[in-house]
Design brief:
The protein is 1% helix and 38% strand. It has one domain: 6 Propeller (Neuraminidase), CATH 2.120.10. It is mainly beta. The chain is globular. A hairpin with a 7-residue loop joins β17 and β18. The chain starts with a helix and ends with a strand. The longest helix is centred in the first third of the chain and has 4 residues.
């Protein structure tokens, strides 16, 4: 039975076939509840009226093999996604309320949310984590490991493990630091990162057991609580042992705050985001990632252009 449930099995037919993008900031209104389903062939559907509390800075991940969950963000609630892609009503949040965190799968059918920003300046940069059971129940806070940071990436790799990497920490420091997650959901201490330090990127599993980090912003300094930065389309592949590769020259429009999801069992898709420092120039472009980790050129997007959303795979 454990083999059937496994979302990251080497057999793509029993890994998530569809994806879902959800929530974010469209620019024309404070926050959105819109979702967009991704088919098993990577086609993004038109907007579906949202369910739950509109918010940004949300995180999403697959769990239970064929389901997904959105959680946290600017409001501490969670919303489960069924194996058919139906988004459920709000569930009251568990643990520390925060935004700019990330989620990933681990242990074959479970998930973890970690890191993020709870406000209040330097103390608000967190490495706190919360485990998600294979029934979609979020656990209480686990004391953080590693450097507290926000707007990082996270994805499953190696069929039953996860990785968090990159991000923006207190003092305007951008990171390429990584933290591996074992198949029991334990987060490891910081390991030296590879590639360009950046934040506001996104990430997903591809090829059933590998991961990709892509896009984001480079730079620190500036004011208003955010650094001045340059957007990039750089990607970094992660092999099935959790080793992050050096930068790959980016493909497609440079952008920040996109979402990324697996689809088709062994592929991934980046979508939406902002072309430069928000709130300007929201995008609804997508870029498909094949099962070798190669990113394709821009595809004209469908649905509401927005940023600070997230995405996850669902459905066998």
């Amino acid at each position: 039975m454990a083999f059937i449930i496994g979302a990251n099995s080497a057999n793509p037919s029993i890994a998530p076939q569809n994806g879902i993008f959800g929530y974010g900031t469209p620019g024309s209104a404070p926050y959105s509840t819109v979702t967009n389903i991704v088919s098993s062939s990577g086609v993004v559907a038109s907007d579906v009226s949202g369910v739950g509390t509109a918010r940004n800075g949300v995180a999403a991940t697959s769990y239970g093999g064929d389901k997904a969950i959105f959680a946290y963000g600017s409001t501490n609630v969670s919303n489960l996604v069924s194996s058919s892609g139906v988004l459920a009503a709000d569930v009251s949040g568990v643990g520390t309320s925060r935004s700019g965190l990330k989620g990933c799968k681990y242990g074959d059918d479970k998930a973890i949310f970690a890191f993020g920003y709870a406000g209040g300046g330097t103390p608000g940069y967190l490495s706190t984590s919360n485990l998600v059971s294979n029934a979609g129940v979020i656990g209480s806070d686990v004391s953080g490991v590693g450097t507290g940071r926000r707007y990082l990436g996270g994805a499953g790799y190696g069929e039953d493990k996860g990785i968090f990497a990159y991000g923006y920490a207190a003092g305007g420091v951008t990171h390429s630091t990584k933290n591996l997650v074992n198949n029991s959901g334990v987060v490891a201490s910081d390991a030296s990162g590879v590639g360009t330090a950046r934040w506001t990127l996104s990430s997903a599993t591809y090829g059933t057991d590998k991961a990709i980090f892509g896009y984001g912003a480079v730079g620190s300094g500036g004011g208003g609580g955010f650094p001045a930065y340059a957007t990039v389309s750089i990607t970094n592949l992660v092999n099935n042992s959790g080793v992050v590769a050096t930068d790959t020259t980016g493909v497609g429009t440079v952008r920040t705050y996109p979402g990324c999801s697996g689809y088709g069992g062994d592929k991934a898709i980046f979508g939406y985001g902002a072309a430069h420092n928000p709130p300007g120039n929201m995008l609804n472009l997508t870029n498909l990632v094949n099962n070798s980790g190669v990113v394709a050129a821009d595809v004209t997007g469908v649905g509401t252009a927005r940023y600070e959303l997230d995405a996850a795979g669902f459905g066998y």
